[in-house]
Amino acid sequence: MKAKECQFVAEPPDSILLPKAFIIEKKVIECSRVVSLWIAPLEKNECAFKPGQFLMVYVFGVGEAAISLAGNGGDQGKYFLTVRAVGSVTRAIEQAKEKDILGIRGPFGNGWPIQEASTKDILLIAGGIGLPPLWSTIPFFLQNRSRYGRISLLYGVRTPQDILYKDKLESLSKGKDISVKIAVELATARTWNGHIGNVLNLISHAQFSPPSTIVFVCGPEPMMRFCAYTLLKYGIAKEHIYFSMERNMRCAIGSCGHCQFGPLFLCKNGPVFSYQTIEPFLNIAEI
Amino acid sequence: MARFGSNKFKITKRELQSILDALKRKGFKTIGPTVSKDAIVYEEIDSLNDLPIGIGDEQEAGSYRLKKRTDATLFGFASSPHSWKQFLFPAQEKIFSIHQPTEKTSPPLIDPSVRQDPPLAFIGVRSCDLQAIAIQNRVFLEGPYSHAGYKSKAKGLFILAVNCAYPSATCFCSSMGTGPRAKSGFDLLVTEILNGQKEPFYLIEAGSSQGEEIIAQIEKTDATEEDLKKEKDVIQNAEKQIHRRIETQGIKELFYNNLQHPRWEEIAQRCLSCANCTFVCPTCFCSTLIDIPKKAQEIERWMVWDSCFTLNFTHTPAGSVRKSVLSRYRQWMTHKLASWIDQFGISGCVGCGRCITWCPVGIDITEEAEIIRKTSPVKTPS
Amino acid sequence: MVMKKLAVWKFTSCDGCQLSLLDLEDELLEIDKNFVISYFLEASSRSPDPPFDISLVEGSITTEEAKRKIIEIRNHSSILITIGACATAGGIQALRNFASLQTAKERVYPQPELINVLPTSLPISQYVQVDYELQGCPINKQQLLSVLYSFLFGFRPSLNSGSVCMECKMRGTPCVMVSSKTLCLGPVTHAGCGAICPSFGRGCYGCYGPKETPNSPSLSRWAKEKLSIESTVLKQAFHTFNCIADGFKRFDEED
């Protein structure tokens, strides 16, 4: 005799695991394998985001991928994303067309510590596809420019063809608010007019006072690590250097365990961490 | 706990059965231990006669055997290959169905799964598993987001706990501070006491108002001084039978300081990365979300158990972060014994010994922890 | 949705994996909505009509003619998917790779000179580029469906590559190795079958082939020392449908 199943608990669905439908309003090809999308919710979306947060983007039939937010799509509730095709899901996103529907969850994560940057000099150091998450901070700094000291955006890419946001960068460099410097690793004087070499070399050209400087870094992990060593040599404090880390992301709500880095969950404790917090684990292989 | 601690009553198997019946009348799905396929597993039970009467177990690293006892105990065994987590956090659960119209520009229709979970009553939960449930409550229910599926199943959970009388050789709850005596987290607590040639009798106490309510309905006598002494003996004997241990003093620092200890290499020679330990562990909580196409335009999204021992677990565009089996075993053990403390304020290990018993090649977490502590180049206070 | 042209090919095999496609029964009607089954000898006598969007290939290569044919199929197919242990790992017929073909021929056939075969049975991937491998003996038809739909959308499927142990534990079967001294290849075998055999008290036969990073030497050592499994029994267990796959071919540390 089985127990009568007369009592049941009906709970609302796990809405945090349900993607919301967003339409691709505009798509721009940035460079080989990289596209930018402006997406808008089909139903009202209240979610403002903090720069440095990410979305879980769902493509029907393919799966989900964590994509950093590069900005708001012009209006409240809209998003601007830049995606590089590196796997099934990101390739599906890259191949999506305007008017296609994507499933969106989020935003998730802690974001860059914008408040801490108050009164300080700021270095934004981006490597390759690390530019979009840093780009999301620009409107916040520009909105209250007087709160901050000198701001420099240092951006490194491999070849001149890999430069993202060419128009935006050009327009930003014309203004006086943020100093923009770009370093290209593989170029000759003929193919590139500016600095040839690694992005770290740009640090010596930036204007900042080490004791009161905060740094936000985003790029491939080895680049971020070397960046930190360089910055420490300049006398910048460990607690003022921030990385945006990347690991396998699934649920994004701290329950699936995939994004762990040492004791830290990238989704709920990160993805932005101070160098001081992650230093003990950063140099251990396969942690 | 002080509210309910003192009133202990003495009952027989008949009254225990009437408790089970009362729970079923209230609509609970009663789940308890029963013999199936050479092991004691947790399944839905109807009566106490479904329990492993007079059956005990012998466990060692990589070995589990049932044995016939010379008495008629209902709870004469230790841990099971099953843990209670499979009921609160099922191995596979559908989250939603999604139907894509043929036009890619039309929004897909999402059909979320509606939960219809009957309230559960767990019969015979050991102290280690009580702690494991408390740990998973913390993992899944405490902010910033809660696991809706777990929340739904844990709601209205009724626990009839049992004090362990016959720990197995792989148990080490005492050194983890999680047993053998159950202290909290139960609605009713029972200790089975042998009674010579007669059937065992039971001392029972309530641990919650729900438990009090149930006790109020059954026939019982007050436990006598002699009964209480016998109960104390049962527990003390149980404690004496536990030989394995993990020294927990400074254990977090011990592992954080030994991430490059040569012992990991030795373990990696043996470890099969089969993920068995993570799936029998009552606190392991990792999962993944997968899409299963049912038709060309219809997909179901499921949440299924996953393990840090798989290569895919740490997949990134640059390849998996933890490629070597060494790094995966190290992740599991240091997470369980060390990082968990930073994440949730308590150890992730409850000393149930399941990972030791059910490892196909008998890797013993207590042995490895001891070796690392003894040979750690950095001295940790102990 | 543009219909995709599907072809199903057979080399040295038992036909069981192709049969999985027919075993889909009702779901075949769904397949029919999106795929044109252009060539499938087990189901229809229609002649092949290249080019193909997707070719499913079953069976291993054991003759010169097969070598030529697979290259032709590769040239006519946008996507080539190998299905089953024969195509992905050489199959049980690859046991001949360990021995002398001539000796075997002479023992079996009265006129061995009439048997014109390659000395080895090798997987398809040894001869042509393969876009996806679906392991199994036979393959899991639900996984086949998943793979077909993924390629319909134009993307690589991502099926779980964990161990059979994971599937066993998910369905609640107590480990047969631990609870009785039954040799089971589950810990080193690729998931996919749903852990059927242990649910009947039998050890896993390794039909789905080695999982990623299999540690067969460790399993063998334990089997010999603690379960008293003899070396010959161990060899018989590993050298079956996936006998030449890495992780099963050499399963002992003494190798």
What does this structure look like?
The complex is a heterotrimer of chains A (287), B (382) and C (255). With 287 residues, chain A is of the alpha/beta class. Chain A folds into two domains: 17-108, Elongation Factor Tu (Ef-tu), domain 3 (Beta Barrel), CATH 2.40.30; 115-282, Nucleotide-binding domain of ferredoxin-NADP reductase (FNR) module (Rossmann fold), CATH 3.40.50.80. Chain A contains six helices and 15 strands. The longest helix of chain A has 13 residues, at 221-233. By secondary structure, chain B is of the alpha+beta class. Chain B contains 13 helices and 16 strands. In chain B, a hairpin with a 2-residue loop joins strand 10 (188-195) and strand 11. Chain B has helices at residues 13-25, 85-88, 127-141, 148-154, 173-176, 209-217, 225-241, 251-256, 263-270, 276-280, 325-344, 354-357, 365-374, and strands at residues 9-11, 29-36, 39-44, 55-60, 63-68, 92-99, 109-112, 120-125, 158-162, 188-195, 198-206, 221-222, 287-295, 298-305, 315-316, 319-320. The mean pLDDT of chain C is 92. Chain C is 33% helix and 12% strand. In chain C, strands 2-1-3-4-5 form a five-stranded parallel β-sheet.
Brief summary of the model shown:
Chain B is an alpha+beta fold and 382 residues long. Chain B has 13 helices and 16 strands. Chain B starts with 8 loop residues before the first strand and ends in an 8-residue tail after the last helix.
Essential attributes:
heterotrimer; A: 287 residues; alpha/beta; Elongation Factor Tu (Ef-tu), domain 3; Rossmann fold; 2 domains; 7-stranded mixed beta sheet; 6-stranded antiparallel barrel; 15 strands; 17% helix; 31% strand; disordered N terminus; C: 255 residues; 5 strands; globular
